[in-house]
Amino acid sequence: MSDKNSPPHDLTHTILSVLFIGILIVSSFWVMRLFLMPLIWAAVIVIATWPAFEKLEARLGGRHGLAVAAMAAAILLIIIVPITLAVVTITGYIGDMSARVNSLSTLSQSAPPDWVSRIPLAGEKVAARWRAIAALSAEDRAAAIAPYVKTAAQWFLAKAGSIGMTMLNFFLTVIIATVLYANGMTAREGILAFARRLAGRRGEDVAILAAKAVRGVVLGVVLTALIQAALGGAGLFLTGVPATALLTAVMLMLCLAQLGPFLVLVPAVVWLYWSGHPVTGTVLLVITVVAGTIDNVVRPFLIRKGADLPLLLIFAGVIGGLIAFGVVGLFIGPMVLAVTYMLLKEWVAFGTSEETPGAIAE
């Protein structure tokens, strides 16, 4: 029985309460927007490397502070040093771009091999274009390539303005990751408690599955991309292809984007044959085949070690997340699909378990 003296439902009070909560959420997001992306990256790094952190702490005799410092130093070396080297490399190439264009005049070009014209669909067009470029004089060839090089240099210079902010984000990522390592168990218990408050035991299972999905993507996608880029970079270095460091960095980005190393290695193979180096071209061709196909073996194995999820689900999350959210979508996409998959699976199983006793009784 309701109390007659209780006040009636106050619609204005409810609207103002919801409005106030909305203002708090928007204000918090506005204040934290600078730290949002570093926080996501730091969480991904810590989730993916937490088992390694626990093993390191055990080997150090349970000295938590020393393990945190070691992991922070490792992240700093793995992230900041390669990024700095990449920036220096790109800046150096932009600085003497005109000299590199002029050096093209010293390259001798030969006619395309016979097998080029036998490539299905595009072989004849490629061979004809190859012969046309080879027939140009050294000065005409450099002049034909110069506009493309200038466009690429302008693009790099336009992107250079965001390099400072990128470096700041990486430093913030390292700092936040260090804090998460130091307070990892507290953060873990807080997240699990929040998940239990939302959906009980199933919410906790979903949170754990999301962490496993992130770990599986890091193992499967990132480590596979590093292996492919390392193989391709070694092949470029051994065969004497110029700008090896720059091409390897581009190849790593392409592998992370699930495009593979072929977009870098195949033109390098063509360039070696074009320059009259068939032996080194064949060596790089073999390395290209290995680097471009090894992901079909390594990636599924590593992903299944991280999370027991359908591979199609992981790949759809990686590609869809990359298109929707950029690079960080590599990890957000699979996590979102993993949570959705888990909820749907639990919902279907729960409905089936409720219907089974009735079916048996009939």
What do these coordinates show?
The protein is mainly alpha-helical. The protein has two domains: 35-182, no CATH class; 200-347. The chain is 84% helix and 0% strand. The chain has 14 helices and no strands. The protein has helices spanning 11-59, 64-95, 97-103, 114-117, 123-135, 138-160, 163-182, 184-238, 244-256, 262-274, 278-293, 295-306, 311-325, 329-361. Helix 13 packs across helix 14 (329-361). It is elongated, with a radius of gyration of 27 Å.
What are the salient characteristics of this protein?
single chain; 362 residues; mainly alpha; 0% strand; elongated; disordered C terminus
Q: In short, what is this structure?
A:
With 362 residues, this protein is an all-alpha fold.
On the 0-100 scale, what is the average pLDDT? 75
Helix content: over 70%
Oligomer: single chain
Silhouette: elongated
Terminal CA distance: 41 Å
Radius of gyration: 27 Å
Number of helices: 14
> N-to-C SSE series?
HHHHHHHHHHHHHH
Largest sheet: none
Secondary-structure-based class equals: mainly alpha
* The number of domains: 2
Can you count the beta strands? 0
Low-confidence stretches: 358-362
Q: What percentage of amino acids are in beta strands?
A: under 5%
